[in-house]
Write a structure and sequence with these properties.
This protein has helices spanning 3-6, 8-12, 15-36, 39-46, 50-56, 60-83, 89-106, 108-117, 124-150, 160-177, 181-190, 199-214. The protein has twelve helices and no strands. The chain is mostly helical. It starts with a helix and ends with a helix. Helix 6 (60-83) packs parallel to helix 9, helix 7 packs antiparallel against helix 12 and helix 9 (124-150) packs across helix 10 (160-177). 78% of the residues lie in helices and 0% in strands. The chain has a single domain, classed as Tetracycline Repressor, domain 2, CATH 1.10.357.
């Protein structure tokens, strides 16, 4: 789906106004989920008339999908930049972990929305958008694991596609652990109440876990 083409009227308004609408929509959908979110509340919080909202978006679903697309593209751009860098395998993984820690904190509601979205049943279009990012990261993770394997830095018995899947699951859970209350409480229960003041420790220990599972010492 080409949102730049579909949302021509929305793309013509100022960046400040677009950001206010996106912020209001992200907060509404993250707090209430798709079914209970109210486009009138979004318009009110964004200080936009409801008539204007329906000029920009045909309905609530189109707004919801635009928000998901925005979040996916934002995170995908960051990940691609790291993965395509000249860092070695472990350097790339550590950078991704650090970005997840900072990104999840500064985009709490967007991350909550991503978590909620995995439980939504209403639209196959959601998967269409998210699979774009997941397809990209799956291939990139698998390719850089294979490169390390071919260079003798990863055990020969590693299946790069499965290990890419395992690695991505660790990243997703870490992302939710810094933004979603259930996962935050889980992390505190397993470790300590002040664990969110110890980003360096989390990154260091997760790197040890990954190194032990994936790589030759």
């Amino acid at each position: 789906m080409n949102f730049n083409h579909t949302l021509e009227a929305f793309n013509r308004i100022s960046e400040e106004k677009r950001n206010k609408i996106f912020d209001a929509a992200i907060n509404e959908f993250a707090e209430h989920g798709y079914e209970s979110a109210n486009i009138n509340n979004i318009a009110l919080k964004a200080e936009v008339s409801i008539g204007s909202m329906y000029k920009y978006f045909k309905n609530k679903e189109e707004l919801y999908l635009a928000i998901i697309h925005f979040g996916v593209e934002s995170l995908k751009g960051i990940l691609e930049e790291i993965i395509c860098s000249e860092e070695d395998l472990l350097g790339k993984i550590e950078k991704i972990i650090r970005v997840i820690q900072s990104y999840s904190r500064s985009n709490v509601n967007l991350t909550k929305l991503y978590n909620q979205m995995t439980n939504e049943n209403h639209s196959g279009l959601v998967w269409e958008i998210v699979s774009d990012m997941e397809g990209v990261t799956a291939k990139l993770y698998a390719s850089f694991i294979k490169e390390a394997k071919d260079a003798g830095k990863v055990r020969n018995d590693v299946d790069e596609k499965l290990f890419a899947y395992f690695l991505d699951n660790l990243f997703i859970l870490l992302q939710f652990s810094y933004s979603c209350e259930y996962y935050k409480e889980r992390l505190k229960m397993f470790v300590s109440e002040d664990i969110f003041d110890k980003d360096d420790l989390v990154a260091e220990q997760l790197m040890k876990f990954i190194r032990g599972a994936f790589f030759l010492e």
